[in-house]
Amino acid sequence: MSVANDQNSKLPGAWDIPLEDIDVSDPLLFQTQQHFEYFERLRKEDPVHYCKDSEFGAYWSVTKFNDIVAVDTNHKAFSSDKTINIGDADPDFEVPMFIAMDQPKHDIQRKAVTPAVAPINLAKLEAIIRTRVCTILDSLPVGESFDWVDKVSIELTTQMLATLFDFPWEDRRKLTRWSDVATASPDEVRPDGTIVVDEQRRAELIECLEYFMNLWSSRSENYDGTDFISLLATNPDTREMSQDPMHFLGNLILLIVGGNDTTRNSISGGVLALNQNPAEYDKLRANPDIIPNMVSEIIRWVTPLGHMRRTALEDVELGGKQIKKGDRVVMWYISGNRDEDVIENANQFLIDRDKARHHVSFGFGIHRCMGNRVAEMQLKILWEEIMKRFEKVEVIGEPERMHSNFVMGITEMQVMLHPLK
Amino acid sequence: MPSVTYIENNGSEHKVEVAVGLSLMEGAVNNLVPGIDADCGGACACATCHIYVDPEWQSKTGNKTDMEVTMLDFAEAAEETSRLACQIKVTEDLDGLVVRLPIAQF
Questions:
Q1: How many CB pairs under 8 A join A and B?
Q2: How much is the average pLDDT of A113-133?
Q3: Which of A191, A200, A319, A360 could, after both became Cys, cross-link A48 (CB 3.0–4.6 A)?
Q4: pLDDT above 90 (res A47)
């Protein structure tokens, strides 16, 4: 089934169709931002909801905060093996990655790369990130509109990713492209008008693999770098990984997407949220010390990854429903973050929110976002430097949104900068 | 109420009183002790309330569950004495307890 990829073609209202016909997997729902009312209905009327038929097959939707935590931390009943997306893995192009593995394999591989993004390593990177943020901000045009996504969100996260991989600097936009290709919906029309078909996707990802194979071979011996590739290539538990190329590619995709699409959209989404909530922008101008708290609120508000999927390994009861062994179980983080039973005024963007860190955007349990501190640090530095320079980053017109049920993405957002008076 | 001392990684001490039945995580958060993030709110699901408990107190703080062991496995600078503060309930026996905080929560 293919859906029209047009932001203007809306789907029926959430309350206009029978409960059992609700299918929240349709990427168009997210592109048109109608998903919020669909999830509001599910949280109220059927918080653990079964969709018997969709483009991706039958699946359960878990929509409440505490149910999401319960599934996310029950690794014995809910498996991540093969895929963490609502759609099944492509059987003709299997790319094993540790986010889509269970214990103990997951643990070994995750631990090998974690030091790159752990706080002690990040403290060493803080100064360099700040310098880069300043360079990016100081190069922006003032008094004319430009695309914030391209010039700031993509540029900053791509630079960060290039650092974490110790990737050749001049080629860094390859990382952006590989990330976009890896997450593109099958029928998605990209901003440049191209459609990423499976054949092209595979070809580009193989190019990614070949590029990294060269980096790997130069770092596998006597190299003491703390970048992802050096860590994998020198760790006794993972140093054979390059002999299983698809396995290596899978983990590359994971690290590239994890570090790219997510923070990119929190950067764009934060600017948009402040524009839509001028009183919050006033609070920020009055008290920039609120930035660390605001960063958590932005990450909740945007929920860069809308869902994670598990597969039931046994029959389980959840919210009074009988989930059967083998069923797809989708935790909708984008919904849990708007659950009024856990988060007060969940549908309001409040930068001085109490317990702002209490959100599900990073997931919980063993698969919890490994890069959460890098993400927070980038956003914190960016906003500190923005506030030293600009009275307002003004959004002009409507942003373009991504056709995806996974990446809650903004693909283009025109802004105009207003320098401090 | 039992008193508990939290020592930050920089050496700052915070001696606070914590009601019996609350967790050490709640004791820190309610008394604004810095250095405990408690992102998951006490569900043993994020490892951002990582603390170190001196060996002499371990018989009174109880044992780690499998889940706690698993979550600590991914925490930075975890040691044998590492615990998640949300998993230790305060009892009268813990009066005078001293716990240390890691350099950062992760």
A1: 53
A2: 93
A3: A319
A4: yes
Question: Residues 6 or more apart from A41 whose CB is under 8 A from it?
Answer: A14, A15, A19, A22
Look at residue A2 in the predicted model and tell me its pLDDT.
35
Query: What is the rounded average pLDDT of the residues B7-13?
Result: 96
- pLDDT number for residue A221: 76
Q: Global pTM?
A: 0.94
Contacts of B105 in chain A (CB under 8 A): 119
- Using CA coordinates, name the residue in chain B closest to A73: B45
Task: Quote the minimal CA–CA distance from B98 to chain A in Å.
Answer: 24
Q: Is B95 on the interface with A (CB under 8 A)?
A: no
- Asked whether the predicted pLDDT for residue A299 surpasses 80, the reply is yes
The confidence band for A254, taking pLDDT boundaries of 50, 70 and 90, is very high
**Rounded distance, CA B37 to CA B26, Å?**
11
Side-chain-side CA neighbours of residue A172 (13 Å): 17
| CA–CA dist A351, A120 (Å, integer) | 27
Domains and CATH numbers, chain B: 3-100 (3.10.20.30)
Q: Do B40 and A72 touch (CB under 8 A)?
A: no
pLDDT at A198 over 90: no
Residue A92 has pLDDT above 90, yes or no: no
pLDDT in tens, B21-80: 999 999 999 999 999 999 999 999 999 999 999 999 999 999 999 999 999 999 999 999
| Between A258 and A266, the higher pLDDT residue | A266
Most A-contacting residue of B25, B30, B32, B46 (CB-CB within 10 A), to test interface: B46
In chain A, the domains with their CATH numbers are: 19-419 (1.10.630.10)
pLDDT band at A91 (very low <50, low <70, confident <90, very high): confident
